[in-house]
Every structure is written in C-alpha cells, then in structure tokens.
Amino acid sequence: MATSDSLIRTGPLFRNLTRREMRQRYKASALGLGWTLINPLLVVAAYWVVFKFLFGTPIPNYALFLFVGLMVWSLFFGGISVGSQSLIANASLVTKVRFPRAIIPAAAISANAVIALVMLVIALPLCIWQTTGSLVPLIALPVFLALTFALTIGLGLILSAVNVYFRDVEHVLQAIGVPWFFISPIFYTYDTLPAAAQQHETIIAILHWANPISPFVIAVQDTLFFGTWPSPADTIYCVVAAAVALIAGWLLFRRLEPEMAVEL
Amino acid sequence: MSGDLARGGMRVTHASRRFKVVHEKGTTLKELLIRRKRTSYTELWALDDVSFEIRPGEAVGIVGRNGSGKSTLLKLLAGIIPPHGGTVEAGGSVASMLELGAGFHPDFTGRENVFMNGAIHGLSDRDVAERLDEIVDFAGLAEFIDMPVRTYSSGMQMRLAFAVASHVEPDIMLLDEVLAVGDEAFQRKCMGRIYEFRRRGGTLVFVSHDPNAVEHVCSRAILLDGGKILMDGEPHEVMERYHRLLAADTAAPAVTVEAPAADDGLALPIDGAPRGWGTGDAVVEDVQVLSSGKPTTSLMSGDPAEIAILIRAPQPVATPSVGISITLGDGTLVFGTNTRLSEFPLDTIHGRARIRFSIPSLALHEGTFDVTVAVHSQDESTVYHWLDRAASFAVYARDPGVGPAAISGHWVLDADHVPAATG
Predict the structure, then answer these.
(1) Which residue in A193, B16, B118, B405 has its CB near the most CB atoms, within 10 A?
(2) What DSSP element (H or E) covers B99?
(3) Which long-range contacts (CB under 8 A, 24 or more apart) does A40-47 make?
(4) Which residue has the higher pLDDT, B29 or A40?
C-alpha cells in the first residue's frame, strides 16, 4: 500500500493515541498531572535528607541535582516501562485495524515524556538561577534530551515488540527498576564519591559505560545543572547509543510487526 | 505498493495462511528456556492458495461455513495479518469494520472514541469535527455521545462504529457481519448507507450469513470451504450452493454416508438411503422439493414451495391416496396430510403420474426437515409404498426468532400493566 498514504494517515492517529494515553493516566484524579510531580518530589525529599545529612554529600543544591537526574530517569525508564506494555494494552486496536504498529509504543513513550517536560519547566529556571557554572552549555541540552528520547524510543520499540511474544518483559522491567536506579549516577556523581570509593576505578568505569543510561544522565546534569560541557566520551557515547538503539529497535520491530495481530 | 492496481481494486494472488494449533503454548521466557524442545503443534491451512481479483466498484459477498477461512481472508484484505504465501494488494484506502467497536475504549466518551476511530481511519481532527454531527445523527446517539462507551449497549456501540466507518469515505470498505447486531430500522439505515457507498463507486467486501443481504447488496459472491474458493459467481447461485453445503452438514452429522445422491442436490437422510416398504402396486420413484419450479434443498421461510412426487404404477391402481409428512431430524412430526384428507380424490393411476403439494407460503422458520411420502389405498388398509425420508430440505429464517415453526407476530407494550420503569 502506498507509503505516502500511510504517512499522512499516521499523524492524527499518533496525536489521538498520545492524548488518550495521557488522559487515561490521569483521568478521574483530582490532581491530574500534579500526581506526576508528587512522586519525584517525595523521592527528592527522602534522598535529600538521607544523602545531605546522613552521608554528607558535597554536591551543592543537592535537591535540585536530584531533581534533574530524576527527570532523565523518568523520561527513560518511565518511557520503556509504558512502552513495553503498550501493545498489549492496545491489543484491540492491533488485532482489528491496520496501521503502523510502532505508533502505539511511540505514543505511549511520548505521553510519558510530557512528565519529564513538566519537570524540565520547573528545573530550568531554578538551574539558571542557582548554577555555579556557565549558561552557554545549555544550548546543548535539547540535543541531549532528544538523544535520551531517541534511546528510549529505540529500547521501547524492542521491549514492546518482544513483550508481545514473551510477556515476561514487563515483569523483568519492574524487577530491575530500583536496582538500575541505584547503579545510575542520579543521586551521586562519579567525581564526588568518598575517597575510599575512588580506588575502585574499574567498578566505576563499568558503572559508567556498561549502564546505557549513565552517560545520558551525566550529560544532562553537566549542561543543565553544572553548566559545563559534557566530556567528549559521554557525548560520543550518547550519539552512538541513541543511534544504535533507534536503528536496532526499528529493524527488530519491523521484523516482529506482521505477526503481532496473531500473537495478541 | 499498489502497482498497476486501479484505485478501489483488490488483488489476491495465491494467498495462503497457516494456522498453528499449538497444543501447549510457551508464552513465557521461563517456559522457553526450561523446555528447549519445541512445543508441539499442528499446522492447518486457514487459506490455501486463494486467488481472485476485485474490480473497483464491485460488491463482493464472502460466504462459507464456520472455519472456512472467511475471517482470515478478510483480515488479509484488511492488512492486519500478512499471508504466508502469495500477495494481497489493495488500491486506495481501505476501511475495515471487522468487529464491533474495534478500538473503542470503554472509559472514553462516544465523542472521544469517534475522534480516535476517525484517526484510525486516517481522518484528521478537523475532518472528524466536520462530520461529527452527521455521524452522531446517523448513529442516533445525540444524547449519549458524551457518556463513556462502556455505558452503551452492544447495539449502540455497533451503530457508532458503523457510523464512523461509513463516514470516512474509503475506496474500499470491508464489513464483517456488521448487520447482525442492531434493530431492523438501523439495519435498513445501514443498507441505505451501503447502497449510497456503492453508488459513489466504492468497492465493498462483505462477509455475511444472511442470504438476503448478500443477494441484495452484492454483485458477486465467493464461497469458501476449507480455505479454498469453492465457487465464485452470481450471488443467488453461490448462496444456493452454500445452503446445499449447510444442509448436507446438518443432515449427515459425522455418520458414514454413501455420497451418490449428494451431487444431484438431494441431501441424504441420516442413515444413508431412504427406507421404503410396501406392496409395490404403486411406487414412489422420486420426491423433489421445488422452489419456483426448480429442485432445491434450501428454502426461505415464507416463500412458496412445492413437493413434487413422481409415482409409477405398473398395473392400474384405483383411487390411491398420496400422503406426505414433514418431520424434524429426530422424527417429530411437524405436518402431515394426504389427498384423501385434503379431499383431492385421485382416479386410477397407470404408468407414471406426478403429483405436487403446493405451499403458497412456507410456515417453517428454520431448521432441516425430512419429507416422508406414502402411497396407499383409499382406506389406508394397504400401503403400496412408504418411503421414509424421501427428501430433505433446509429452511432459512427471514425473521428473528428460533424454532421450526414460523409464527409471526409482534410485541405490544401496555404501559399501564408494567411495573415502574427501570433505567
């Protein structure tokens, strides 16, 4: 069937699905979108008390630093979580109507990204006001956020497609959520670890490079919170990882797409 | 790509689709990892090398028994599942309504679902907004449109779904049994809409069990059986073949039957050959069920019909009486009469004679019926020939309801005698 046709047709469907995802999340709740902020704010409060006063972190404006890291985390992990479940949640659409299936995880991830956007709107003026560094690196922030989004879409496509065939995926994600959060540099930076930790260079290197989200978190913290340019290594890593995830996700999804209606 | 296919045309070339009947499904990763050996399954062909072409503006009815591959074919045409072999091409936009309220979200209002459904069919929000009034009006849901769809009855959902699908103005419309739900008034409205769609030159593919709908709407019908095309042609003829298939199905349920009679359209009674006995002074040679003068095995409720009996008497037989009885499959008598009771005296029969029992309007509703015929002496003391289950035929209902007898009627509500109205 004509590809131009299907491209024209996907626009309204994507918008409608995204709107529906958002409405579905917050419908019938008095606070609506406000709920999306309650959880990060509570996490920030708890971690702030623990790490500021009990562990004495040297990071200035620690609460804001936490908030920035959480924003990246919720964009990424929230995205792949809702993305992985999206096809099953919309089984009635997949089995009865023809349209490019990738719209479904893409819409779910986009709806989730709105939360990160709200967090950004709060964090941005605070960061500009409080920053100890330069404001110039901020121009790179949209790029790194876009790369994070691309990584999320890529992984989300893979997980959503695989979850159709093996329903375990969403359980696995639930199980690894908290541990993954802990090994990501969200409430600490590798530079400000206690002296004792600094000896374990290998472990730190592994945590930095084997965890796909770490460089993204660091790059956003650099540009937004610290007002510094991300290291070339982190920058290259982000570009390559996002591209690889997006291409791999697209290819795998295309391969699994035709039979989805049968499996669901 | 649509290639050389005209807008509104469809082409199916050697399309096949397997179905795995998995005996034990390994859906979780754990099961896949632990049990390394493949799960056992049998493969069935839901569609087996099917080819046909639909010209723009044609209306094609697809009929077949359950499991014949109709739904699979429609899903292939709709592009929801790909064929395992061959190709399926469509020229232009395709709107499908394969199931009631596909994509309706129960918690959203009718209005929101209309926008969503429109988007599925490729309409922008503005397109939908332009048509919203018309859609809501067509569905007759003006006062319910802002209520969640979960509060709708299935009839209301189907009305809304059909209203949207029929207002997106596709080149090709695929409908699966859509007219099965909904009241008669709405069915008529749907038919009107379908006619209009056809007048504008739209292509229609329509799966239905309703012979009336297929014959009225379609210019062509395709009969599927066992995943293959059994017949492709004029709707009336195809429906007749389809009914013969159904009749053969119900008359011979999994009993070994010698098949010789099946070809000439005579569905076999349960135990093979008709059972006959008698003195043989007069013999029932042939019994046929006729519709408009032609032999048939399927009749429509309310239509005229005839039972024609061919009798041969080698020697002159004086004042015989010919009787018929119509029974259900289990032998329950539905109706019986003979020429003596009907005061239709017969003189002497010598050689061959044909006698017809003419029914102006068949008062049977639905089911499969057997005809038993007998020739006996006037006082019924001597049976010349008794032929049990000499013929059988199926009746298809025109009106709603169940059971063998066509008792038409209508409901009347006397408001005074009703307990306080609820909901």
Answers:
(1) B118
(2) none
(3) A40/A67, A40/A70, A40/A71, A40/A74, A40/A119, A43/A70, A44/A70, A47/A187
(4) A40
Below-50 pLDDT ranges, chain A: 1-7
Residue A122, pLDDT score: 92
Give domain status of residue B263, yes or no: no
Same domain for B236 and B276: no
Distance (Å) from the alpha carbon of A74 to chain B's nearest alpha carbon: 26
Are B79 and A1 inside 8 Å of each other by CB? yes
What's the average model confidence in pLDDT over B79-95?
A: 86
Q: Select from A3, A15, A96 the Cβ nearest to the Cβ of B103.
A: A96
Task: Return the pLDDT at B180.
Answer: 60
Q: Which of B225, B244, B263 is the last residue of a domain?
A: B244
What is the nearest CA distance from A167 to chain B, expressed in angstroms? 6
Query: Dihedrals φ, ψ of B207, to 5°?
Result: -100, 125
Calculate ∠ Cα A201-A230-A211, nearest 5°: 50
Residue B60 and residue B129 share a domain: yes
| CA–CA distances in Å: residue B1 to residues A2, A22, A101, A253, B13 | 5, 35, 18, 21, 15
Mean pLDDT of B153-173: 83
Token duo for residue A127: 């960061």
**Cβ-proximal residues to B31 (8 Å cutoff; 6+ apart), any chain:** none
CA distances from B67 to A200, B45, B76, B228 (A): 65, 10, 15, 11
Task: Using DSSP, state whether B10 is helix, strand or coil.
Answer: strand
User: Quick one: tokens of B24?
Assistant: 């034990």
Tokens of A73: 């985390």
Does residue B256 form part of some domain? Answer: no
Q: Do A12 and B112 touch (CB under 8 A)?
A: no
Residues B228 and B350 reside in one and the same domain: no
Helix ranges (H only) for chain A are 3-26, 34-47, 62-73, 79-89, 91-94, 103-130, 141-165, 168-182, 195-198, 201-209, 214-220, 232-256, 260-263
d(CA B73, CA B227): 9
Q: Does residue B269 surpass a pLDDT of 70? A: no
Domain boundaries, chain A: 30-191+199-263
Domain with residue B195: its CATH number is 3.40.50.300
pLDDT at B422: 52
Closest CA to B48 of B220, B224, B242, B221: B224
Model confidence at B181: pLDDT above 80? no
pLDDT at A209: 92
* DSSP result, B335-396: EEEETTTTT-----EEEEEEEEEEESS--B-SEEEEEEEEEEETTSSSEEEEEEEEEEEEEE
For B30, the closest of A9, A15, A168 (CB atoms) is: A168
Interface of A with B in 83-102 (CB under 8 A): 92-93, 95-99
Residue B266 belongs to some domain of the structure? no
Asked if residue B382 belongs to a domain, the reply is yes
Distance CA B312, CA B297 (A): 24
The residue assigned the tokens 């006996």 is B376
The pair of structure tokens assigned to B107 is 């918690």
Tens of pLDDT, residue by residue over B217-238, are: 888 999 998 889 999 998 888 8
What is the C-alpha separation between A85 and A105, in angstroms, rounded? 8
